[in-house]
Amino acid sequence: MRESGGALDAGVDVGVDADVGVDVEVCVDAVVVMGGAFADQAVPAVTGALVICADSGVDHARAWGLGVDLVIGDMDSVSADGLAWAEEQGADVDRHEPDKDQTDLELALQAAQRLSAGGHVLVLGGAGGRLDHELANLALLTSPRWSDLELTAWIGTARVDVVRRHRSLIGVPGGVVSLLAWHGDATGVTTDRLKWGLAGATVRAGSAIGTSNEYEADRASVAVDRGVLTAITPNAPVVEHHLHIVPRSRP
Predict the structure, then answer these.
(1) In what order do the strands lie in the sheet with 24-28?
(2) 17-26: b or e for each residue (b if 16 or more CB lie within 10 Å)?
(3) Is the Cβ–Cβ distance between 170 and 241 less than 8 Å?
(4) Predicted confidence band at 28 (pLDDT cuts at 50, 70, 90)?
(5) Is 251 exposed, middle or buried (0-12, 13-18, 19+ CB in 10 A)?
(6) 21-157+237-251, CATH topology level
(7) pTM > 0.85: yes or no
(8) Which CATH architecture has domain 162-235?
(9) Which residue ranges does the chain devote to CATH 2.60.120.320?
(10) 244 - beta bridge partners?
(11) Which of 94, 172, 174, 246 has the fewest Cβ atoms surrounding its Cβ within 10 A?
């Protein structure tokens, strides 16, 4: 794999631009870049973290100037130039047969789980493609297989925070966030700094009752006693918050 950049040794200097908003530093253990359309969407700045690309995700990583550690998938959509660039940068390439039981994202998440030894994994994915793919990706992200991971996904301009225990959320006052249960009911749901607060409530799978809640501040939180939720923030504030992704400090 590629050697880590100097940011890992020197730390990250995050400045504040008062004309746009506040800076937010999010610590992650790995970044997974998917394929798909990324037209005109803001992308968080990623510094020094492990980067895994699912197939054509490597073309996006190249366009954004990200270093790549691993490219994984059946390589049916990545460009020849993009794959050659990743290999020149020292990335490992894990090729799979096209006729397989797992999607490229699933393979990438397995690699992230293994290489990060559990932790916070950020998924960057395009939107506007096939509906079945997008629903499958959400079902995959909320699978109990990743119960040891903290998962956040950017799908198009929406941020998806997978809530298994407790999650802090980033938004803007008045901005929309929807809480949806997956794979069964979510019980003991408690929120803080959302307009329609919950205290030990049950959010039932298949119900839309959690749709279109609102942030009361630029920080909020959701806790779950049992089950899994997605907290989906449409048009999430990447630019407004100068979102910087940096490697998690481990003891």
Answers:
(1) 24-28, 243-247, 45-46
(2) eeeebeebeb
(3) yes
(4) confident
(5) exposed
(6) Rossmann fold (3.40.50)
(7) no
(8) Sandwich (2.60)
(9) 162-235
(10) 25, 45
(11) 174
